[in-house]
Design brief:
It is an enzyme of class 2 (transferase). The protein is an alpha/beta fold. It has 11 helices and 12 strands. A hairpin with a 6-residue loop joins strand 9 and strand 10. It is globular.
């Protein structure tokens, strides 16, 4: 411990903080490492944000974010008191860990999942129990039927991209009735069915979404939660004990407009899904094994090349992908689905890097 660290709290000294994906400086990079949307935000959202950059910025924003919450509620067939908004889904998740998960019991999360979940547990003094995925990297909901202080499942899962069907979530909710079940739907718009349809049936269900991915607003930091009014009231209590104004006027205006622009949303998500399927096919042709993804990324491994070495070789060509040096997936790369042109550039680079192996395989099979 450094001498100056003596001022740190005991909880902070042992905390392993989340490490975000690399954000390179300078031009010319192809960023396929942080699951950002490759297409611009809605033009309507940009226009609305520009319109509110005026003298009104001297005033605080609406602490209740009422207009935005009404828009979200209308789109999901809910009441406004069933919607909470925050500064990105990470903040919403943090509030859920703080206010809704029982700190005296372990919180159950998948062993291969969003690596922020154990960080939240460490920050708030919660026991985190990681439940192994099966051999095919799928969540087995029956494994979560054990004493717990809450269940947190990303759907689709990250970094695998594999989705749980709504029937499986319903099965879990029917049996796990005494603790909150958080479904983190950061990637739901790329091929999954939202559990929001189950909210009025299950008071223990909290669904969390973000505008960072499918709405191309990662830089705006807007996330929201859907659930029973009692759960939303708990999140609001945490927020108002921390920061009553998590979303500024620009974010409120941009988020509401982005949600209203359904045509832009449909166009960009369909383009990303089409590029994902094209990329999965091309990677398979190069010898990669890809997990079936319903997200805007692929988790892939090449049985004849080190994932860490491939990541570095791509970086030298100014193409960034993500490598997690952790058990079970250390030989995989998580590859964000970029624009079609970016996907083609990645495939070209990988074709060059893997050419010696491809050639050797062809000779061996001749």
């Amino acid at each position: 411990m450094k001498d100056t660290d003596r001022f740190w709290s005991p909880a902070l000294r042992g905390l392993r903080a989340y490490t975000p994906g690399e954000q390179p400086q300078g031009d010319g990079w192809i960023k396929l490492n942080t699951n950002e949307n490759p297409y611009p935000p809605s033009a309507l959202a940009l226009q609305r944000m520009a319109e509110v950059v005026n003298d009104s910025l001297r005033l605080y924003p609406d602490p209740q974010a009422l207009a935005l919450r009404e828009t979200i509620a209308g789109q999901h067939g809910l009441q406004v008191d069933q919607v909470f908004v925050g500064n990105g889904s990470d903040e919403v998740l943090a509030h859920a860990f703080m206010g809704l998960l029982r700190h005296g019991r372990p919180v159950l999360v998948p062993d291969i999942s969003y690596s922020f979940y154990p960080v939240y547990c460490g920050l708030y003094g919660i026991t985190c129990q990681q439940v192994p995925l099966d051999d095919d990297f799928r969540v087995r909901v029956a494994d979560y039927l054990q004493p717990n202080g809450g269940v947190v499942l990303p759907n689709p899962n990250a970094p695998t991209g594999i989705v749980l069907p709504l029937d499986a979530l319903r099965w879990l909710l029917e049996r796990n009735t005494e603790s909150v079940v958080v479904i983190d739907e950061a990637y739901v718009d790329f091929g999954a069915e939202s559990a929001a349809a189950l909210i009025n049936e299950f008071p223990q269900l909290l669904v969390i979404q973000t505008l960072s991915k499918s709405r191309a607003l990662a830089g705006l930091r807007v996330g929201f939660a859907l659930g029973h009014a009692d759960l939303i009231r708990a999140l609001t209590t945490v927020k108002d004990s921390f920061n009553s104004y998590p979303l500024d006027r620009v974010a409120l205006a941009g988020a509401q407009a982005a949600l209203a622009d359904q045509a832009h949303f449909t166009d960009t998500t369909q383009r990303i899904v089409a590029s994902r399927e094209w990329l999965a096919t091309r990677l398979a042709a190069l010898g990669f094994e890809c997990l079936p993804s319903s997200a805007n990324f692929l988790l892939a491994r090449h049985p004849q090349r080190s994932a860490a070495q491939l990541q570095q070789a791509l970086r030298e060509r100014k193409i960034l992908v993500r490598h997690f040096n952790q058990p079970r997936i250390a030989d995989h790369l998580r590859i964000t689905v970029g624009s079609q042109a970016e996907c083609e550039a990645l495939v070209d680079a990988l074709s060059d890097l893997l050419a010696p192996i491809q050639n050797a395989n062809e000779v061996a099979s001749a």
